[in-house]
Design a protein that fits this description.
Blueprint (H helix, E strand, L loop, with lengths): L9 H32 L2 H5 L7 H8 L3 H13 L4 E2 L11 E2 L2 H8 L8 H10 L3 H10 L9 H24 L4 H8 L6 E5 L5 H9 L4 E6 L2 H13 L6 E5 L11 E7 L8 H11 E12 L13 H17 L13 H11 L3 E4 L7 E7 L1
Parallel strand pairs: 3-4, 3-6, 4-5, 6-7
Antiparallel strand pairs: 1-2, 7-9, 8-9
Length: about 375
């Protein structure tokens, strides 16, 4: 049927027009993401957040960028509503721009829980291996985590940093009385294994909150482990943190830990049951396992919950294909519902999965009981 033969009802025409508007707005969002990436990576926002009005020449000089590109970026950022211009009628080279204070918190204040600039870096990383992703969709298999490159690795670390530093040890674990008490105990110091710790911010957050805790972080991605080691050095925590490029299934680790944690890791694993068996085996007699994963709905619905639009996006582009790269794979994906984790935990030998009363927009916290 050709386009000229399509006859829509009034209701269908309205549906079409809403969808057209949605795609146009989505395209605007894509341009926002990629131009925010440019502004973040090249330091434009940090300069503009100082409160001074800057011309394109001034911003180019401060950042070592090319003025003509900077000018185009400044104009685009103003038109899209991210920057402010002092006098839009001034000559192009004379116009002065600044970043509003409310936007600055979101784009440059890395310690703020509202800091979202890393989302742009994550999105850039997520589409980096798009040709390989299409190949996986057509022929099976997956896309190895390493293929997503530094942008995905660094973006994921940066977007979780403030939450893990500010909430893990200061509000999440204090809300779990038995674990909180053990982590505070001085002798013997509590030992924690943080499996799949990435850049190490979850481990660092625990050690900063609990002065006696000793943490071993385990990850198979060598660049992530090196990043974690550097973050620990920067925080002055080398003596109480050790990060390993090592498979945590090693029999030598059995029975050593009071607590095993997996932050945003289980849904990415090709064999999550084996990982949970490993976590169970690593515990000492009184140990506990804590899982932090995405706060998705308990079941599939046509609209999803308030975060599933994002979680399905990450799943299609990254988490599912990365989890499918190693075969055989259960193919969990980002949208791991509580019932799915319960099945994995039961198969791994745990008796119960408790959803803890910890409120977070993106994450759900579970305790697995032996």
């Amino acid at each position: 049927m050709s386009a000229t033969e399509i006859t829509l009802t009034e209701e269908q025409t309205a549906q079409r027009d809403v969808f057209i508007d949605r795609l146009l707005q989505s395209t605007a969002g894509v341009f926002d993401i990629f131009t925010v990436y440019i502004g973040d990576k090249l330091g434009f926002y940090r300069q503009l957040a100082n409160g001074d009005w800057l011309t394109s020449t001034g911003l180019a000089q401060h950042t070592g960028a090319q003025e003509r590109y900077v000018r185009e970026w400044l104009e685009q950022q103003t038109v899209t509503g991210i920057l402010e211009v002092e006098d839009a009628t001034a000559a192009a080279n004379a116009r002065r721009y600044r970043l509003p204070a409310g936007h600055a918190e979101v784009l440059v204040e890395r310690d703020s829980l509202n800091y979202l600039a890393p989302l742009a870096q994550l999105a850039v990383g997520a589409v980096h291996p798009i040709s390989s992703l299409l190949e996986a969709f057509q022929h099976g298999g997956g896309v190895p985590y390493a293929d997503y490159g530094a942008d995905f690795r660094e973006g994921q670390a940066a977007i979780n940093r403030s939450t893990f530093l500010q909430e893990v040890g200061h509000s999440w674990f204090p809300a779990i009385p038995d674990i909180h008490a053990r982590l505070r105990q001085a002798q013997p110091p509590a030992k924690v294994a943080d499996i799949g710790m990435g850049a190490g911010w979850s481990s660092i957050g625990l050690v900063q909150a609990y002065p006696n805790v000793l943490v071993d972080g385990y990850d198979l991605d060598e660049p992530s482990v090196e990043m974690a080691r550097q973050n620990a050095r920067d925080a002055g925590l080398n003596g109480r943190l050790n990060f390993h490029v090592r498979d945590a299934t090693d029999a030598d680790l059995a029975g050593q830990y009071d607590l095993v944690t997996l932050f945003e890791a289980i849904h990415d694993m090709s064999d999550p049951v084996a990982a949970l068996r490993t976590a169970r085996r690593m515990l000492n007699e009184d140990g506990a396992v804590i899982i932090v994963d995405e706060r998705v709905g308990n079941e599939f619905t046509a609209t999803g919950n308030d975060v599933e639009w994002m979680m399905y996006g990450w799943s299609v582009l990254h988490c599912l294909p990365a989890g499918m790269a190693e075969q055989p794979s259960v193919g969990t994906g980002t949208v791991m519902r509580t019932s799915t984790l319960e099945l994995y935990a039961q198969e791994a030998g745990f008796s119960e999965v408790e959803v803890l009363p910890i409120d977070n927009f993106f994450f759900r916290v579970y305790q697995l009981k032996v």
